[in-house]
Amino acid sequence: MNATTTGEGSSVARRFEGQTALVTGASRGIGLEIARRLVVEGARVCLTGRNPATLAEAVDALGGRTHAIGVAGRSDDAEHRSSAVAAAIDAFGSLEVLVNNAGTNPLHGPLLTADAAAVRKTFEVNVFAVLGWVQEAHRAWLGAHGGRVVCVSSVSGLRPAEGIGVYGASKAALIRLTEQLAVELAPNIRVNAVAPAVVKTRFAAALYEGREDAVARTYPLQRLGVPADVAGAVAFLAAPESDWITGQTLVIDGGVTLT
Questions:
Q1: Choice among 92, 123, 167, 219 that is catalytic
Q2: Cα-Cα-Cα-Cα dihedral of 258, 148, 6, 35, to 10°?
Q3: Is 179 within a domain?
Q4: In a domain, 144, yes or no
Q5: 20, 59, 146, 220: most buried, per Cβ within 10 A?
Q6: Do the domain assignments include residue 66?
Q7: Which residues cross the membrane (predicted)?
Q8: Could you report the per-residue pLDDT of 235-246, keeping only the tens digit for each?
Q9: What whole-number distance in Å separates Cα of residue 88 and Cα of residue 147?
Q10: How far apart are CA 227 and CA 95, in angstroms?
């Protein structure tokens, strides 16, 4: 197996040499770090995100169009999904890996006072759009050639969490969707998920900003997650080492769900 060396001097296997990945919601944070990990391991990536300027910066950060392209749009827009999948295949000739990372959380508070429109939006992005991405990728490439799908869920989909009940319910639905797709798309397409706890990104900042040390002390490993923690797990689930794993959700939580 070929390997490359990171800036820190450690050797990383190029497990995705010659393959193409599409990573949704990848202009920053966890999505960008997942894309970076896949590029380091040899993949060409298509990134999606809502902001064209931020997306262009992400593509540049990954080495430009030799390694990455960006397609701006909303994940809950069917035309955007179709355009992004087509662009990935047109640019790089294949689509072996789909990473459903795009998500939204517009609500904070109890379910009983949740705005119905915001609840629908949360499920449109976090659940229905994921199914749409899988359907589109299946039609365009995965159905004929096989591949791997990894969905980014959350530990809030495993147990109740104060203030983010709608988000948690959508992430629980995503875990169930992952299991169902794994059964329906086997044996040529594997579908798995990851469920991170609090990861230090702008998306999750409200959960730890100004009190990071106190929050970290509630974790057995005494720290919050960073995007690279999730990226490594996603790469594993998309790589040959996990070829006998499907329909599973890998919890990445510093041990917090044990407490």
A1: 167
A2: -90
A3: yes
A4: yes
A5: 20
A6: yes
A7: none
A8: 999 999 999 999
A9: 14
A10: 23
